[in-house]
Structure formats: C-alpha cells, structure tokens
Amino acid sequence: MNSNRKHIRAFQENVVRLAMLPDRSIAAVAVRLGIPVRKLRSWVRKSKDELIKLRNELKQAHEEIEILKKANGKCLYSTKYVGAAREAPAPDFLNALH
Predict the structure, then answer these.
(1) Which of 14, 50, 57, 90 could form a disulfide bond with 94, CB atoms 3.0-4.6 angstroms apart?
(2) pLDDT band for position 30 (cuts 50, 70, 90)
(3) Alpha-carbon Rg of the chain, whole angstroms?
C-alpha cells in the first residue's frame, strides 16, 4: 500500500471516530469537514460492520479455546490413568499363566 492510501485510510478512521462520538452527528461532521454525508455514512456503516465481524470472530475464538481446554483436560485425565496402568506391575495370577 502506498503512503497516499495509508494517509487516506488513517483520515477515514479518524473521521469515523469523530462521527461516532455521542455529542456529534454524522451529518454535522460531514458538513464541517466538507465530506459528502453519504460517503461518511458509508464509512461509518463499514466500520460498524467490521466491528461486528471482529466481535463474532473473537466470540468464536473464545468458544474454540474453551472446547480445547475441556478436551485437553479430558486427555490429561485419561492419559494420567493409562500411564499409571502401564507402570503398575501385573497381578500375580497373570504371571502364573506365562
């Protein structure tokens, strides 16, 4: 990405933050900065959509982490006893069969 696009993206992000302040309206910010109101509304909508998408991804990641934690706990629990069974000596009646 060239530096011009980076500056434009940074400008858009700052304008959207300004428009999202509780004491500001999108129209007032657009008029003040000389930006078409439709354009600013579009930026705000895209920003909100992106925020929703990121929140959903974060929620899904947290759910996956919880599933993995539970699965890991079960694996640790079961291998703890499997390992103990391997290390335990065979009962005497099994030794008599050999």
Answers:
(1) 90
(2) very high
(3) 30
